Amino acid sequence: MGAGKTKALVLIHDQLVSEGKEVVVFKHVNDIQRGGQVDKVTARDGSTVSGVVPLSTLSEILFFNTDQFHTVLIDEIQFFDDADTIPMLNALTISGIDVHVFGLDVTSDNTTFGVMGNVLAQSDRIEKLKPKCYRCEGDARISSFVGGEKDGDVHVGDLDEYKPICRRCYFEDMKLKKAPQQQVKAADKEHTFKFNCAGFSITFSVTDSQLAAAGYTIDEVNDINTEEGMTNLLEDLGLEIFI
């Protein structure tokens, strides 16, 4: 994100049109959902291409007469995560149409974005555009989500919610995010208690957090020496003992 992929699309489109080529531009409907104009793609410098056709799946291209197409440009290819995406791209190419696709290769969690792994594997030529990392100014590889809580694996947003980040800074951030969780996990120790009452014994294990939630300390548990006290403890902990 912010690498200039839409600008590259605009430049390729304008160059081919100036050569008299028949160029058709498609984009995923998600671009409209994030505030994009229905029939345009717009780069961050304000340059645009008009007459763009929004699609939900690439199979919708079959509704068009592609015989006159010289070049097809497809924006936000990562959102076309359907079984027909790769077959459609291959079909267009085999029919003699020059196909250019533009999109993100990884998610903000640094995993392959939808069908992009297969798209890259099938591509004859790949050009990776890299913006500057918002932290260190190095080459960014990932769009880090900084917008709070995501509402799913795919959260459509812009630079107000995503920032370009390099690998090193990304993994440093991941370590910082995991550190508090690891500290909590390490602090939540497990304790084993054994009670001997009325001719039978009970052994069970609980964690510090379980004891705290039930309102007990370790010393208080160790001080319990009656069957009634033990029964109350087990009920407070939500433990069922079958004798």
TrEMBL record:
Signal peptide (residue range): none
Top-level taxonomic group: Bacteria
A matching Pfam family: TK
Entry GO MF terms: ATP binding; thymidine kinase activity
Catalytic activity, as annotated: thymidine + ATP = dTMP + ADP + H(+)
Matches recorded under InterPro entries: P-loop_NTPase, Thymidine_kinase, Thymidine_kinase_CS
Gene Ontology CC annotation, any one: cytosol
Entry keywords, A to Z: ATP-binding, DNA synthesis, Kinase, Nucleotide-binding, Plasmid, Transferase
Any single GO BP term: thymidine metabolic process
EC number: 2.7.1.21
Family that this chain belongs to: Belongs to the thymidine kinase family.
Record-given protein name: Thymidine kinase
